[in-house]
Amino acid sequence: MVALAVYLVGIRPGSGVSPGFIAAVAAVPTSHTVLLLEEQRQELIAISSAAKTLSLVGSPQLASRQTSTPSPGGSGSTTGVPSGPPPNPGSAQRIGYDMLASFGWSPSTYFGCLNNIWTRESGWVYNAENPSGAYGIPQALPADKMASAGPDWQTNPATQIKWGLGYIKSIYGTPCGAWAHKEADGY
Length: 187
Prior knowledge:
The protein is built from seven helices and no strands. It has helices spanning 2-9, 19-27, 32-51, 92-99, 107-121, 157-172, 175-185. Helix 1 (2-9) crosses helix 2, helix 4 (92-99) crosses helix 5 (107-121) and helix 6 (157-172) crosses helix 7. It starts with a helix and ends with a helix.
């Protein structure tokens, strides 16, 4: 705590500042902002740790990297999110690419954001499972809520993608809105 307090006021140990002053600074209660930042840091550590425990069953077919897509608002400006040609036929990514239009989104505009999300979440593997119980391409939790999209939700990438796109639309508006949230908040 003393080191944190000393750091916060910019005083370094051994700089000639009296130990009494350092002790007085350490006695000052931590601000609400510092406490919130520490909570967020701990949350990010937990999320990062959980993400590393994802177990993939099988080997995903990943689409080639792409070049640019619109910003989360869909204004047409780029944010470094990959976009480009459609993914390989027969892959889960191609199912998602082809399904975007049925949700009102241009595949060439929004696939890059969707690809970033689900590559990070599951590698586009339909039976990817996280120790938390999250399952499938969209990592639904609880997993069985994907049953609302079809009875074959456990084994059919198209059913999982349909459910996941509906979830994205209802919560974030667009895949780029979801990607922006994931980048900002880590989930």
